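Input sequence (179 aa), recorded before submission:
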Amino acid sequence: MAYHHLALAAKDMKAIHAFYEGVMGFELVKVEIAPVMGGGWGKHFFYRMDGDDSRFIAFWELHKVPGQEEQVHDLNAAAKLPQGTNHYSFAVDTREELDGWRERWNDAGLDVLEIDHNWCRSVYTRDPNGNMVEFCLTTGEFTEADRERALAALDETKMKASPPPGSMKNWPATKVAAE
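Predicted structure, token format:
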């Protein structure tokens, strides 16, 4: 089962559009405009991913919603969690595709973190809301020992650390982002 769309509120819809269509290459294909539960109204923008009419990321631009001035759009800041705890990850199929995203983000003026997790390799950046966005390539296979370790961790109350990442590298932006 796959998800249909992930829906998030936008702090600045024009900046979100510039990032998700201009940098990420997702296509804005639909907007729904309607009243919002609790008061106010919103525009719900849908961005098609990879030309697939069953996979989207969507953003709400809210208007006249009670408490709007106190809204926090960074998921981790809103939940008072460490940076990067809540994030969203998109799949890639090859190392070349993963490297291509790192280069694309750098060329767009974004800093990138790359981590080899020993079973997958990821690149991360932040969107205009401050949320971490990831592209991830699975590089390993899962064994019965992996499952047994995961099941045992459900009951553990003290940290039994996993092996450290194979590598971590910061890739600073190759150009200054447009203001």
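Checked by second reader. The chain has a mean pLDDT of 95.
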